[in-house]
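User: Hi! I'm working on a homework problem where we have to compare a predicted structure to a textbook description. Could you give me the structure for the chain below?
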Amino acid sequence: MIDAQSVLLHGPKIITETDVLSDHAIEIRDGVITGLLALDADLPTDIPHCALPADHFLVPGLIDCHIHGASGADVMDADPDALQVMAEVLLKKGTTQFFATTMTAPSGEISQALKAVTQFRRQPKQGFAQIAGVHLEGPFLSPQRPGAQCARHLSQPDWEKFQQWQHDAEGAIKLVTVAPELHGACQFIEQCHHHEVVASIGHTAASCAQAQAGIDAGATHATHLFNAMTGVHHREPGAATAILMDKRVAAELIVDFVHVHPDSVRFAVETKGADKIILVTDAMRAQCLGDGRFELGGQKVTVQQGEARLDNGVLAGSVLTLDQALRNMKQGDIASLCDMVNMASLNPAKSMGISGYHGSIAVGKIADLVLLDGAWNVVSVLQSWSENEGC
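Assistant: Happy to help. Predicted structure tokens:
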């Protein structure tokens, strides 16, 4: 059994922020990447060497900053055991960090969900994806663009209410979606910015000018670009237009080719730049379970042929996994290997303020690594404290 806390990995192609290295090894000591070493150099002999297949790829652990559920469990179950179910299946799919995403619901239900996240985070477990924080999606959303959110529980932005939820979460709310056209929204966004909480434009009926006002107030993130927002129109430019034009904003994309057409994905990448696109799943509890009837935010959802919809036909999150999003990007030849990996790792890490230790294969960062085969399926995951299954 090889100690993955200190090991030299070599063999597969290594995808860094800017290069695909085929002739290097990764040196890991005490769970931290300490070197990217050329194979023709003198390699250290005081730690174990682990040879992996040459036709495989090593990428950084994937980071999902927008996910509601997986494998029958949901954040709004308000149960640490449900979060553990999610964390277990996510790790198997290559996601090592995720932001537990809430739904619009009565205030007390949101509080209970946040307290469950707090309880789970107090005891991080080996062999599970880690909850890096909370994404509060709702209730500060537009009643005109609720998507699959429960419209009767929507409310205007309320900083005092948010502070109570932040107290329940012990400061774990790192991202909050808000419609910038709502009364008091820009002041709310300013407060988020002041308190180092990322404000995200989403579920919005804003005009381009109203969205731009939200960005000027401090919003630096956009929730599932194109979905549940005003779009790109030549006479009435909406929120999507402002988001695409402003380089201060990083934009989520659900690349299941159901929520967004492949050509629209390409348009977004080419317009905003690959460094400002974040791949997310927006997955609900049906992720990894196949077709059937499920529940999201108290509403019935039918999953059929990879699409999750309410009974009225509205898309209700997805059943996408981040590794599948990468395969979709690769199949569509939408971005370079480095860029598309960054979209699922480095870019979310930067947007959420955790890129100092996560998000890429670089010296000084935590050694959360994913081994992919030639078809980009997850073979194994190495966490900084765990043994590497591939060795």
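For your comparison, note the following. Residues 386-391 have pLDDT under 50 and may be disordered. The chain has two domains: 7-59+359-382, 62-351. Good luck with the assignment!
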